[in-house]
Every structure is written in C-alpha cells, then in structure tokens.
Structure prediction request, 367 residues.
Amino acid sequence: MKTRAAVMYKHNQPVVVEDLELEDPKANEVLVRTAASGVCHSDLSVVTGAIYYDAAVVLGHEGAGIIEHVGKDVKDFRVGDHVILSFVTYCSDCKMCRMEKVCLCESYDVPRGFQLDGTYRLYNKSGQGILQMARIATMAEYMVVPHQNLVKIDDHHSLEKAALVGCGVTTGVGAVLNTAKVEPGSSVAIIGTGGVGLNAIQGAVLAKAEKIIAVDITEKKLDFAKGFGATHVVNASDDDPVKAVRELTEGRGVDYAFEVIGNPDTIVQAYRMVRAAGTAVIVGMAHHQKEFSIPAQHFVATERQIIGSFYGSCQPRVDMPKLLNLYTEGKLKLDELITKHYQLDQINEAFADMEAGENARGVITFN
Prediction:
C-alpha cells in the first residue's frame, strides 16, 4: 500500500515529503493509521545528525493512531484499537525490564531504524529501503510497527492529545516523578522550556515543588513556562543563569535542576545550579559526539549528583494511560501545549517555527 511520509534523505537538508510503498505487517507487527504526530526537537536532531541515523529515514517518534491490521501472533491488539506509539521497543523479560527499566531493554540488538528482523517495511519509488525513526516513524499516514511499541488507550481520549503523551509529556513529567522523584516542597530549576521542558514544569507542579524556576533565552517560551506553573523565570540572555538561580534560593542552589536542551554548556550549568547533595538530571539528548567537563573533586566535596533520564524512566503501558487520566481530571495541561497545527507537507515550516521558539508544541494532523 502507499503512504505519504516525511523522509530525511540528507543530513542538514530540507525534509522530503513523498509517497512510499509500505509492506504489510509480518508476524508480531501491526499496521497503524496515524492520527497525529508531535513535532519534537529529537526529530530535528535526526535531520542534523545529532541523533544519528543513516539516510534515508522517515521521521517521527511521538504519535497516536488506530490499528487497521494485525499480523500473525499478535494477541493483545485488534483492529480498531486506539494506541499511542512508544518510541522504545521492549521485551518485558530481560534483566532491565524485570527491574522496571523497560526503556533500557537489552533484548533487541538491531541496527537503528530497522524492524526487529533487520529488514525494511518502507521503500521509495526507486526501490530504496527507508528506515523508520524509533522503529515507528509517526510522520507518515500509515506505519507498520512491532506490537511491543504500542500502548492501548481508551477510545474516548483525543488521539491528538494522546500523541503528545508519546514523547514530550512522558519524558518531561517522568523525569521529575520517576527519575528524580522530586519531593513536595523542593526547589527545582528547568533549563529549556520547549515541549519537554514545559512538561518537566508540569511534573514539578504535580510533585508539589515549592519553587519552580524556568530558564530559557526566549521570552515567549518563558511566558509559556509561567502558564504551565513556573513560579520564577530567568532569561539566560540577560542574566547569568547560575547566579540568578542561586539568588532565588538564598545562595544555596536548587534541590533539583533539569537540563532539557542537550547542550554540554547547559548540562554544566545545571550541575552548578544545584545545592550541595543536590541532583542535576540530564534529559536533553546531546549530540552523540559531545562531552562535558566538571571538576572531579566537586563530586566528593559537595556530594552533588548527575543522573540521566531517558524517556522519563517510564513504563509506557503503565504511565501513559495514567497521564491521560490526569489530563481528564484536569491535573495535566495538554490542550495548552498545542500552539499550532500543521499538515505533513509543512514539516520544514514546523521545524523552522520550533527553532524560532514559536510553539510550545506543533502537531501534524492527518485526515
């Protein structure tokens, strides 16, 4: 069958939207009709090569849709089910999965972008095999994906809102609640108030943090941050962010700092913002070749910690339905996250708007 998709053929070049040939699902795979796909900075990072995929690859890792066909041996899903796409594939049986660290599953040693059998499901008109970002590729009208990447949700949930839970919401909220386990009354700084950073702010609100300091270089994004629960904002273009955060915390530093950009300089800033025995949580995905440097003695002398948070340390089939329920109960903002809708053909415009800080989250919707 045919599917229209956003394809990265060359790094740092405009994305091409074209029709591709999509194979039928094989055993343990499912065909999903895409309803909506979020536009996340990680998608752009694939284009720039910061998150490296060989070309060509269909973009998109944050989405939701409806199952149209199930392959052989799929037992837990059926045609018509509404699903969120998880961008991790996990087995539920390896050591990490049994430790409830499913995002770090050890079972699938398959090159990035290929299906679990090491082959393609997408081909262009020249017969070239096309990879799928995160093995799903939500920036396409249809996807063939492993059933392990699916999270079934109740039909009454908006698929457009559910798509956001596929990455940005889960990653941001989960970093605060699951990875850091922020305590009530804590002080928190969030560096970077894009889609994931805004959800880290929401996580801090849910955790009942007392002081929530948003740090960014764009006033519009800091205005978004206030709307999502930031108690203080710091424009790092005008002020030294480390000094400003320390001044807001009696010179001590925050209990927790979350770096949600993926930049070595802001990772170091996050570390320098936290108090003695505080914790810096690295959420942003830096370029795969980048490193950062911190004086080694500080770890001993101050007992500060640096920890990573991948996908909010989530268990997708447990946490994603819970997040949607929080939205239904009015405790989580999803409507306010979507500041602009795009058609698939507007993907390059969507990336430009994201880089300019125009959106909390842009969303591609499909007919």
